[in-house]
Each structure stands twice: as structure tokens, then as C-alpha cells.
């Protein structure tokens, strides 16, 4: 008799992203301090505020499930953030630093897009429509942030990274 | 005088995804063996073949850059794959196993989508249009695979995961 259910998988996933979001808050603070361009700093600061709201939504999801808000170590986000940290160290003082930080932030966004998309789908399957709605709000924010970062990258950061070394 | 350029960042990124793709090949083999549903096994096998072609394209990108095809340890993919491995172990025999494996595969896809999107953009900025074209071909495949997995998840795997435990 299997003991693990989709409900268990869903709860594990919520714990995973709860851990991830709090790691992301710490990483975004470092990235905002490290970024050279003011508009990239501003983009990181804006997403930092948004992320704090996303953590609040996860606390509400835990409440819906009747479970304590508790994270579960997420090696994926640890690895993704580690790569951003490497960029900060290895490209400090380089004209390509901002392009690297922006790419690191987009890797974070895509991890979140994958996870929130999955969690929303599982919440709907489990009939947890209230949780699905909260997860969908965050998913929409993540998709929007990723698109804003792409626009910033293509319009400015990558171009400057190249021009300064040309 | 900064020594690191966008060209360095681009080469580091190609090495990172080259390492990642080869790790993904090994992980997909395990996931195809572990999956319960035949259509999920088939989806993993199909993507395995596609991934082998993507590695070949990266070898071509290294050739364009005049650099040896060499990977660079990518803690992000190591972490993402580790989470898939945890699902395989913790949900073995569970009706939710396939839903978990599918979610793990989508996290991998999104990592690749983020990286190939970035690398294509950098290749264009650097005037490496031949490399950009190769990277864009892989990006299109990854986006397509992610959409196929979403359809499979919503149509079948999550629903079965739920029904078997109901």
C-alpha cells in the first residue's frame, strides 16, 4: 500500500519553494548591491519587494493546508544562487557583470516559474482552488518579472557589456 | 582595467550548459526507467534523443568559438537533478511518482530555457550569428518539450496520481 500521495508531493513542493523564496530574498539583496546599472538595481529591488509578498502568500497556503510554515532544503535553488554568487565574484569590476547578474536572476525566475506552474496544477487537481489562486498570482508576477528582465537585457545591459569592451 | 568581457561570460555559459546537458542525459535515462506510465517513459526517451542532438550543437558552438568542448561544473543543474533523484527515491511505488518526475523534468527544462535564452541573446550581441542560430534551435526544442510535458501533466499524470489515492 503506497503511503505517499499527490497531497504529500504538493506539501513537499510548497515547503521547497518556501525555502527557496527566503534564499532568493537574501540573494536579491546581494545582487542589488552588486549591480552597476541603476535600472538593474531598481529591478532587483522591485522584485525583492514582490518576493516578500510571495512569501506571505505561501504562509497563507500553509494555513489552507493546516500545516506549519516550514521550509525544506532545496538543492536546486542553492545551486542556482551559488552560480549567481560566482558571477558576483568572478566578474566584479567587469563591464559584463550586469549581464551576468541579469542572467542569474532569470535562472532564478525560471526555477520559480516551473515550480509555481506545477504547484498551481497540483492544487487544482487536489481541489484546493483557494491555494491555486494564490499560487497563480505569484506565477503571473514571476512571468512578468522574467519578461521585464529580458527587455532590460536586450535593450541595455548586454549591449553596454559589449560596448565597454569594444 | 577589467579583464573579463561578455565574450568570457558567453564562453563560461556555454561550458556550464555543456556540463548540464551531459548530466541531463544521465538523469533522463534514470527517469525513463523509473516512470510508471508508458507515455511518460516515451516522453523522456524522446527528449533524451533530442538532448544528444543538443550536445552536438554545443560542440559546434565551441568550434565556432575556436575553443575545446569542455564543461564547467554547474551547481544549478546538480541541485535540480538531485531533487529529481529525491522524488525517485521518496515516491517509489507511490501513485504520485509520475507527477513528481514530470515536475522534476519541467524544472530541468526551465533551467535550459533560461540559459539558452540568455546565451542566444549574448551570441547576437557578440555578432556570433551562427552560434545564435544553433542556440535558438535548441531553445525552440526546450520550449516545445516544456509545453508537451505540461499537456501530459494536465491531461493525465496528475489526474491519475490523484485518482489512485482517492
Automatic annotation (TrEMBL), chains A, B:
InterPro entries: DUF892_YciF-like, Ferritin-like, Ferritin-like_SF, YciF. Transmembrane segments: none annotated. Pfam families: DUF892. It comes from the Bacteria. This is Ferritin-like domain-containing protein. The lineage of its organism: Bacteria, Pseudomonadati, Pseudomonadota, Alphaproteobacteria, Hyphomicrobiales.
Amino acid at each position: 500500500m503506497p503511503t505517499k500521495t499527490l497531497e504529500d508531493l504538493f506539501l513537499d513542493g510548497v515547503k521547497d519553494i518556501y525555502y527557496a523564496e527566503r534564499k532568493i530574498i537574501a540573494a536579491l539583496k546581494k545582487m542589488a548591491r552588486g549591480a552597476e546599472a541603476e535600472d538593474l538595481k531598481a529591478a532587483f529591488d522591485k522584485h525583492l519587494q514582490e518576493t516578500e509578498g510571495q512569501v506571505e502568500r505561501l504562509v497563507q497556503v500553509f494555513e489552507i493546508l493546516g500545516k506549519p510554515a516550514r521550509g525544506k532544503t532545496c538543492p536546486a535553488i542553492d545551486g542556482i544562487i551559488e552560480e549567481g554568487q560566482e558571477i558576483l565574484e568572478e566578474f566584479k569590476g567587469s563591464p559584463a557583470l550586469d549581464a551576468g547578474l541579469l542572467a542569474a536572476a532569470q535562472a532564478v525566475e525560471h526555477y520559480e516559474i516551473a515550480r509555481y506552474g506545477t504547484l498551481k496544477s497540483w492544487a487544482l487537481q487536489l481541489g484546493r482552488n483557494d491555494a491555486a489562486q494564490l499560487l497563480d498570482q505569484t506565477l503571473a508576477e514571476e512571468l512578468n518579472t522574467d519578461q521585464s528582465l529580458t527587455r532590460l537585457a536586450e535593450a541595455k545591459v548586454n549591449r553596454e557589456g559589449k560596448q565597454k569592451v569594444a
